[in-house]
Amino acid sequence: MHFCFSITKKNPAIAAKISVFKSVSLQRIVASAGALWLTGFLLIHITKDLTASAEAWYFHSTPVWFLVMIIASLIFVYNWKRLKKSGVDTKQLYSTLPPE
Question: Are 99 and 61 contained in the same domain?
């Protein structure tokens, strides 16, 4: 699986319209800092949730969130494979945004 962390490589048309931070280096720094910040919040939330006392497992949001994400991921993978099997070029279909 290929991940592209640079919008300039993935979608140059959208990258050309960025007006807040023109510097690609600054964009990457801000994006990385944001990802680290959100990861930190997620880890704090998970730690506090799992160490808190609750009567039953379903009163903790973390296991419920994981369950929902697993079910949603399975639905996504099923439908993605179904699209590919029916001959849809998913890369082409999702390479551009729909008109606003």
Answer: yes
Q: How many residues does the chain have?
A: 100
Which of 84, 46, 47 lies closest to 62 in space, CA to CA? 46
pTM for the whole thing?
0.58
pLDDT in tens, 44-88: 999 988 888 888 877 888 888 889 999 999 999 999 999 999 999
- Give the integer Cα–Cα distance in Å for 31 and 18: 13
Domain that holds residue 45: 1-52
Say how far apart CA 42 and CA 1 lie, in whole Å: 25
Is there a single domain that holds both residue 65 and residue 83?
Answer: yes
Q: 24-53 burial, b if ≥16 CB within 10 A, otherwise e?
A: eeebeeeeeeeeeeeeeeeeeeeeebeeee
